[in-house]
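Researcher: Go.
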Amino acid sequence: MCRKSRAKWFVTAGLILAFAGGGAFITAIGAAPKQSHSSAGPDQAPVVSPQGKELLNQFSVAFESAADRVNLSVVPILSEQVNQLTSPFGSPSDPLKDFFGDEFFKRFFGNSQSDQKRVVHALGSGVIVSEDGYILTNNHVVDGAEKLTVILADKKKYTAKIVGRDPQTDVAVIKIDAKNLQGASLGNSDQVRVGQWVIAVGNPFQLMHTVTAGIISAKGRSSVNLADYEDFIQTDASINPGNSGGALADLDGNVIGINTAIYSPSGTGGNVGIGFAIPINMAKSVMHQLVAKGKVTRGYLGLLPQDVDEALAKALNLKDTEGSLVGDVTAGGPADKAGIKRGDVITSFNGKKVDNSVQLRNLVAEAEPGSTAKVGLLRDGKVSEASVDLGERPKNIADASGGTSAPESSSSERFGLSVQDLTPEIARALGYGDDNGVVVVDVKTASMAESAGLQKNDLIKDVNRAQVHSVGEFNKAMKRVGKNDSVALLVRRGNNTFFVAMQMAS
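Model: Structure:
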């Protein structure tokens, strides 16, 4: 279900938010161990040893105990939203209505579109986190709702109010006026392990308090296109529409994630064993800020991080692909003031190892604006550390891009791109001011340049850390690139700069 319309479940092709109503699948766990049939007759049932049966009973009790601890803390959340009906007749700009008049359409077709409304009901889940009625859920469960109703295990209904929402993580907090509730035990999602047994609790397809079981399939999933900040736990515990906002818990009954979405390649909304949950540590951090001040503030470094692939590592003489490469630094920003430079590789943030740009972005976002962060750096093969006084991340950081074409001047069949000098006129048209470099005017399909991600109107500033100011300098630098070598290009696109690597063919 998308966040703006409760009538739709699709976020991207095949990705479905676990929020709405329908039918559920419950996973059966455990099977009796194989028995030898050598001494049993053809009509005799195999015998399970007492030890085997006890082992299975203990296995079952572990899930039963976890379900008992979590179940009462997970509640259904019913949302109501009033939508305008779309009618083929009587729209404000309809020429037929203009000709016949509004009274004609009211007489023969009923009220006009502007007078017709429909109440849309949807079902999600939430996790009680305090005895006085605070409930953690997904933003898409409550977004746009004009009324929220929470149903407790004793069937009592409460109208809930929204305490705060954070669309960037898809986390929301609501509250009901109730006392002595059973709050969930919140675990530590940093300590969960791939392969660990978990249960998912929620209200799929209007089947209240459904418990399913599975394992943690992966950690740190990003690029799922559900939120701006993603660090999802992936699980094969059955999650279906209606599970959104429910609990993903370990076998001790500790909530380690908030169930959010499923992947369904068939587009039917059914579970295929790929579900995603927001780590509880991320959800808790957002929740505490929403409760305390009704909004979320995030740390800000003022740089553009990017991942290091094998070609970039080779081109930049890096030992491996770990860390986050600094593609650009905002002038006058926190990173710039701390001496961080373009081309540095960030290897740690406040003592935590940084593997990629998504992890760095999440770590910075979780840090308190105004605090001082210790940033581990790798520059020209040397390790250092910078102290950065973090700023507060702006609400909207625009990604400007040029949209004007430039005439072709020089081309390279070897790399599959054409470039031309950056003239003052082109610089003004593309917004590059007094910058240096050559402008990409064409990228050939299936070329090395296209594979590297170069686009028309990109400004190539450096070749292997050396600045280029003209097509001649660019061609000279590129001629020095041998077979099987990698070349690192510093590229500006709009207001952002970043590195790309091209791997030369033999």
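Model: The radius of gyration is 28 Å.
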